[in-house]
User: What shape does this take?
Amino acid sequence: MAEQPTRATDRLAFLLSLVPFLMEHDGISVADVAAHFDVPADRVREAVNLIAMSGIPGETQQYLHGDLFDINWDEFVANDRVVLTNLVAIDDSPRFSAREAAALIAGLQYLSSLPENADRGAIASLMAKLTRGASAAPSQLAVAPTDSHDAIGTIQAAVRAGVQVEFNYLDAQGGHVLRHVDPLRIESVDQNWYLRGWCHLRQAVRTFRLDRMSDLTATSTPAADHDEDVVVPSSFFQASEHDQWVELDLPESALPLIADYMPERAGTPDAAGRMRVSVRVAHVHGLKRLITSLGGLVTVAQPAEARRVVHDWATAGIRRYQGGV
Amino acid sequence: MPPTSQPPQRISVEERLFSLVLALIATESGLTKAEILETVQGYRQRYQRGGDNASLERQFERDKDDIRELGIPLETIEPLDESGSNHNLRYRIPKGLYDLPSDVSFTSDELMLLKLAAAVWREGSLSSDSQRALTKLNSLGVDSTDPVLGYAPHLRARDAAFEPLSKAMDRSQVVTFPYLKPGEPAPRRRTVAPLAVVLHEGRWHLHAADQESGQRRTFLLSRIVGPVTPVPGKTFTPEPDGQAHHALEALDRLWEANTARVRVVPESEAELLLRKRTAGEAGPAGRAEEPAGTDQALILHFTDIDILADELAGFGPEVLVLDPPRLQEAVMERLRRVAEAHAAPDGEDTHG
Assistant: This one.
């Protein structure tokens, strides 16, 4: 998060937060400030420079010396330490905005449905504090509790014990394969939980959806130590040379519905607002489920094989209602 | 000396904003706009005494919005004897409302939880809102305990509608957007007063008062398929707190009340994914008693029949809807539409 470019309002929040912190930590090093706020040291230096030259117009309206913040410049320049020697106007932490408080409260609501954060009392008191610390009633934002997954406990125990897990995994083509995985991390996106781990079958880091696993157990086989040599990719969707391109026709307004597939525009919308896009898929069997779940809004244009797969899938579905199997 | 005779030194945006906040906290009685533009760092360099300061005034209006967005209570005081006169409005930030109340403090464990809570949001406006909250929390100087390793729960709030909607909620602003209702072929424009945004069963919902029908409606954020824009000059009276809570309760009641019965092909993706969502009547115990090779009957709860129909249609032949009949019809209708849209061109055998 430290390397992201920041907006002026974020930088203002940083300045307003830095002042009371520096007041309480006389003579702290720039490096320690940077570590505490999780920002680059240069950003701290810039902010301290700006604070030291800022202040209020004062009675003379001329920003005279006594109306400005001041620091011990020798300490700052020679030793990279910050000593505030004059304070102006503010001496306390700012309140949260309605939306800032709401974002943390909604995050807490989500965490509180996870087994290891079961201390509801602590979370409730934390939410009350955030509400009290906000300058306006927190925005109306809420997250319903999620069902926690039994598998999470098993995997976490395996991570702690440093052992492999073993499970049957249903891939998107419908095949079940027994996998042995060194668990690295559990992640959830929306209501779905994922295990990221070193797959001994594929000899690579793979992502597994917890609800596609069955017969999950922690084994007694030690997991290899991957801390140094394995990079867990940040994206779930890893492109491969086996991917194929499929062209889809859809109304422009339906584009957000296939955003997960990162469609590339392959033309401009026609008079009726329909357009063509290309998407990259690992195989058409995942795509056929998506297309069928969109109920005819999005159609496959190319290749013919993909059209056929979708057609057969939908037709097989209809046949179930006609007494066939 | 005319102020235009030398190029003003470049003052950064944050320096101007910071100076404005300091000036408005330091003043007891408030400053008029003219005083601010004339004296505050970042404005005074560009102020033209007796000249046209229209662009600088617009800058000040935007800066006020930015400062309020941070949760800083920037007040406007109307002089008692001159109400109606815009000219002598005074601005200030009451220090007592600016400072975090002294009884709001956090322990190291609490800070660790709050950091985890902030990390739940990985992208979009909720992420920047919670990162800013963390910056403010850090000013308290508490060091957090280390979080549990190997654990990164996060939620997505990347629907493009999210940020404009939460802004509009905070400003009690009526908005309009194109909405593609599940099961309908084309979007329709809706105009609503946004009341709450809630995450329920993995989907973000907007709870809002529809301005046309006057009714409360729930919208899926993922189905808002175009920009959310404010209706100029149209605001609404904010509802009492607890709207988000009510919206979740209403969705829960709906979810509880609606059930569907479906058969799934054993060992299929549908079985695996839907079984985790069953109402419990056909739980794991029931599974063992079913004869091998028989389709499993599951009972599913849902909030919106068209969303469930979309989802079930995606499973194709792996799912057979038993009831309610309306759900069965909706699924068949979707499958038929998909089959027709993907039929081979005339004269060509589908199976070539």
Summary: Chain A is about 35% helix and 25% strand. Chain A has three domains: 8-86, 150-222, 244-322. The first strand of chain A starts at residue 28 and ends at 29.
